[in-house]
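dumping the sequnces here before i forget
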Amino acid sequence: MLLVQILVNGVLLGGLYGLMGLGMALVWGVLNVVNLAHGALIMLGGYLTYYLFTGLGIDPFVALPIAALGMFVIGYCLQRFILNLIVRSAMLNTLLITFGLSVVITYLAQLLFSADFRTINPTYSGANFAVAGITIPVVSLAAFVIAFVLAGAVWWLLNEMTIGRAIRATAQNLTAARLYGVDPRNIYALTFGIGAALAGVAGGLFGILTHLTPYVGATLTAKSFVIAIIGGLSNPFKVILGGIVIGVAEQLASLYLGPTYIDVISFGLLVVVLVVRPARSLRAA
Amino acid sequence: MKTSALLATVAFALAASGGTATAADNVVKLGASVQLTGTNANTGRYYQDAYRLTVDKINDAGGIKIGDKTYKLQLDILDNQSDVNLSVRQYVQLLKSDNVDFLLGPFASNFALNDSSVAEKYQVPMVQGGGASGQIYSRGYKYIFGTLPPADDYFASTIDMLGKVDPTPKTVALVAADDSFDVSVAEGTRKHIKDAGMKLVLDKQFRDGGGEFSSILSQIKSSDVDAVLWTGHETDALNFIRQAKSLNVNPKDFYSFTVGVPTADFRQALGKDANYAFGMTSWLPNESLKDKWFGDAKSFADAYQKKYGYAPDYHAASGAADVETFAYALEKAGSTKPDAVRDAIAKSDFDSLYAHVKYGENGQIDLPQIVVQIQDGKLVPVYTDHMLNKPQYPIPAWGKR
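..and the predicted 3d for all of it:
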């Protein structure tokens, strides 16, 4: 029974992890930018949801799409006016600039929101129900469902919509895409904006499930990075699956080895994946 | 790149030492490296704010008399960005290029553990109110003093109380973070549990700052323990309680946390879910704690709240006592020589807003922890060596609150 509960915990946690990785994988796959500010964007999305909830009294789950929209605008502007300047240059430059962005965003957040920790705490945040003796937290389940819905939305956008085709075309062959009238500056900004919007939703859910401080970003970036690599960059559903693999592995490690080994396991998995199938996992990049 | 960084550092150090060589007369400079940004900033600010408030108060009252001269205190605070390595470098910088006379401490045991080695190396006394771990004092250092009581005994009064409530818990789960403070707490607590005749059925360590407890909580649920003793830092305590609720994990009678519970921020972040949580504090703002500069602990708390807009907890009071330790010791030593002041600190014996300050042989103060509980959103002192107020015990299950 304990093992089943632990597995359920891991799978549900993995849904949120996958959602965190989704935006990172999208931006990485299309723009070839490893966005080291991704965790900082998740944090910002969390604070947006927090203030929509505590300031305006909007239910956090209603606030999520508003926060996503806000984050889309922020992401679009970041790419359009800053990242586009260096997006086709060496990868080191994009690493440097996104790292710089994460530092700037983190410290701006401390100035604006203070270092106090916050929680998004609606009355139902601790709600749960039991199925055959297994406790299912409602918000974790909702996060899990939202992760799959958004993965489906990203898949549909990339494969079925004109704009999605333009995004994929730009990633595959910039010159050919241009010849067909695609404006890469706009496409890049749109893609980054969508990545930021996904980060925003993940941040809101993260704030409901755990806590927010301006500093949560760094570890979330690392986690998203691992998940994006394990899930691969080509298929949104595989990213969610990558998140679930990490979630379950962490929970099992916590049960059998002790909670201090959680990070060893997730980064150990990363190393194993890179050794076993380096070409496959990075092909899309 | 390494060489150029080194050259830059040397150049900077030379420039800095040249610039500050002519420090004003009649000023005693106290230096500290504190967490003003980064993951510990939330607690680090208590130290900066308490140091400032106390130094200002002492200076406003005319400063301190050393020999026949009057001195003012001056503060030099650096931000260590919650990075231990940076904090060690900053303490070296404070002594070697900023020319501070004495050292105040950072927040948290793992910082104090490392930073105190700088004090020892340069033989300049450091009085710190942020680290409680016994490791800090177990190395025979002569220049480190501390105003937080030993981490080993944090749960002593709690376990003592558990022997006097009905029903007395028989089985206990201990959940501890893996940093220096919590390792010390866990070591001491295992002994206290054994001495009290309780059974430790689950003993789990987690990564400090990890914030993910669903596996531990599920194990607590399946082992059906009577009491949970939890030690770590605030955000982890917060996550533990939130996840306990969402996984519907109810220790049968009791849970208690070494940190968080006395802090206003913590109660605000958790709202109603904070109720019933037990915790501990070495300090409460009582009028019975008399102080030379502030009058009493309550006036200190009021002045602090007024100036900074948030209530002080034991971290702040402990920090204030550190500054006062220097004030008393400097007057008593009649000199600003580090060795003379060090010896005077060792002989400290004064009442303050924080506690009666008297350091043990190893440099650490010894104080009882007051058991506190959050009852209807309010912090209520419950037990020291006798009941102060009636505890809400046993803690009701989540569904019955």
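The longest strand of chain B covers residues 69-79.
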